[in-house]
């Protein structure tokens, strides 16, 4: 397995039993073999998703802390933000695909690095398919 681009939706699925399944667990297992990369927005998206789940009573701060400790042990490389690329290629890709700039950042990274994209977000999956990007979990 080669490295892949990891998005927040897949990451957050690992935290919640009702969102995780065999396919998302297979993506998690493949991290040990290949590692993953993310755009700079990823930690904020994950933090926001966890905070929202806490506020809705879906999880606790203690469980979030355990999840974050497990996440920190995984081979995930967060790319530094590149303002010129974000305001150039990523913005243009968002316009072309109808994605948010946040989601376009994942697609731009997958395209630039020629790596599969691990996402559960259906609009992002459609845009990736349209650009010839391999998807995890596979369809």
Question: Key terms for this structure?
Answer:
Rossmann fold; alpha/beta; single chain; globular; 139 residues; 5-stranded parallel sheet
Give a verbal description of the structure.
By secondary structure, this protein is α/β, with parallel strands linked by helices. It has a single domain (4-136), classed as Rossmann fold, CATH 3.40.50.1010. It is built from seven helices and five strands, in the order βααβααβααβαβ. Helix 5 packs across helix 6. The protein is globular and about 40 Å long.
Can you give me a brief rundown of this structure?
This protein has 7 helices and 5 strands. The protein has helices at 8-13, 22-34, 42-55, 61-72, 83-97, 101-113, 122-130; strands at residues 4-6, 36-38, 76-78, 117-118, 135-136. Helix 5 (83-97) crosses helix 6 (101-113).
H and E order: EHHEHHEHHEHE
Number of helices: 7
**Which residue ranges are poorly predicted, with pLDDT under 50 across at least 5 consecutive positions?**
none
What's the name of the CATH homologous superfamily? 5'-nuclease
Based on CA atoms alone, the radius of gyration comes out at 15 Å
* Mean pLDDT across residues: 95
In total, the number of domains comes to 1
CATH level 3 topology: Rossmann fold
Distance between the termini: 17 Å
Query: How many strands?
Result: 5
- Main β-sheet, in a few words? 5 strands, parallel
């Amino acid at each position: 397995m080669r490295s892949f681009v990891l998005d927040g939706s897949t990451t957050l699925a690992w935290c919640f039993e009702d969102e995780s399944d065999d396919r998302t667990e297979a993506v998690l297992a493949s991290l040990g073999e290949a590692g993953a990369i993310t755009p700079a927005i990823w930690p904020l998206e994950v933090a926001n998703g966890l905070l929202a789940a806490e506020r809705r009573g879906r999880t606790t701060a203690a469980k979030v802390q355990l999840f974050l400790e497990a996440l920190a042990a995984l081979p995930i490389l967060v790319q530094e933000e590149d303002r010129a690329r974000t305001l150039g290629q990523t913005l243009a890709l968002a316009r072309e695909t109808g994605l948010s700039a946040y989601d376009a950042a994942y697609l731009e990274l997958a395209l630039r690095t020629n790596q599969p994209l691990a996402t559960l977000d259906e609009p992002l999956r459609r845009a990736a398919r349209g650009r010839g990007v391999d998807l995890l979990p596979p369809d």
